[in-house]
Amino acid sequence: MAWYYIAFDTVKQFFTIKGTETLNELITMISNCTEFVDVKLRTNEKKILNTLNKDKDKITIRFPMEGKIKTREMKVNCLIQAQLGCIPIQDFTLTQDTGRIFRNGLRVTRWLSDFLASSKRNFSALLNSLILAKCFRCRLWENSLHVSKQLEKIGVSLSNAMVNAGLTSFKKIEDINARELELILNRHPPFGNQIKESVLHLPKYELEIEQLPKYSDTLAEILLTVKLTNYEQLQTKRTAPDFHYVTLVIGDADNQLIFNQKIMDSVLLKTGNWMKKIEVKRALKSEDISINLIS
Questions:
Q1: Is cis: bond before 190, omega within 30 of 0?
Q2: Which pTM was predicted?
Q3: Cα–Cα distance between 236 and 233 in angstroms, integer?
């Protein structure tokens, strides 16, 4: 709590968590945090916020709320979702509020995933909190088509142009011709090469899973390998920051957390891969396990 500078009331609120919370439920909980108490709902903003929440003619937020926007919490929720959904807001005070919400929200979401990882009984809430922390960090939804907005020099309008041209993944941007990219973005050479270059030097991961022959009815042994597939390219130049890492998180059908670890890029850059053998107990509901590698 002290490390992330989190309010006591926020911590108390998250002690009520059930462990099965969805992304939508976590955003609702976060919107209620003490960290956003200085965000005020002004009467003249309600029209814009209600349009963001529900409008049949315009793009609206991913998880609309019931009824009209009438509380500070609903406003915070609405602005978080609008930002993650790349929905433009033409109001200066709301843009300022959004900036403040994200500065605090970055801390709250990172604290939340650490907090949830301290218990073994809330795998799905932990998984969603890791996804949410990633969303706050990138200011994009985890399934957003606007992936290019994470690159330097690419703002909302250029990323819109890329989405309209079908460039909705880093792979597609890497494969396109640099001159064609400049035409799409209405920029002069060597802009296309610079963008392709920065995508080329993003870390690319591969996850291999193998069940080892030693097993019983109740226990399985699994070998996990995380590979940096463009390990050679990253030796000279990297687009991601030095502190970038992936989180490997594994849970079973009973919502139990089996394994959770941050793997730093700096570790993977030494040899190109990371290996770990783990034992998994059979869950009561089924023998399925969920293995997630989150950048």
A1: yes
A2: 0.92
A3: 6
What DSSP string runs through 122-162? Answer: -HHHHHHHHHHHHHHHHTS-TT-S-GGGGSTT--HHHHHHH
Task: Spell out the residues 6+ positions from residue 129 whose beta carbon is closer than 8 angstroms to its own.
Answer: 26, 109, 112, 113, 116
Name the pairing type of β-strands 219-228 and 289-294.
Answer: unpaired
Dist. CA 74–CA 41, nearest whole Å: 9
Contacts of the segment 230-234: beta carbons below 8 A, 24+ positions apart: 230/200, 230/201, 230/203, 230/204, 231/268, 231/269, 231/272, 233/200, 233/201, 234/201, 234/203, 234/265, 234/269
Sign of CA dihedral 200, 201, 203, 208: positive
CATH architecture of the domain with range 205-294:
Sandwich (2.60)
Do the Cβ atoms of 136 and 33 come closer than 8 Å?
Answer: no
Q: What is the pLDDT along the chain (295 residues), one digit of tens a residue?
A: 999 999 999 999 999 999 999 999 999 999 999 999 999 999 999 999 999 999 888 889 999 999 999 999 999 999 999 999 999 998 999 999 999 999 999 999 999 999 999 989 999 999 999 999 999 999 999 999 999 999 999 988 999 999 999 999 999 999 999 999 999 999 999 999 999 999 999 999 999 999 998 778 889 999 999 999 999 889 889 999 889 999 999 999 999 999 999 999 999 999 999 999 999 998 989 889 999 999 9
Distances in Å between the Cα of 48 and the Cα atoms of 37, 109, 160 are 21, 26, 22
Domain ranges of the chain: 2-138, 147-201, 205-294
Helix (H, G, I), strand (E, B) or coil at 98: helix
**Choices 3.30.479.30, 1.20.1250.20, 1.10.3380.10, 3.40.30.10: CATH for 2-138:** 1.10.3380.10
Amino acid in position 280: V
What one-letter code names the amino acid at 55?
Answer: D
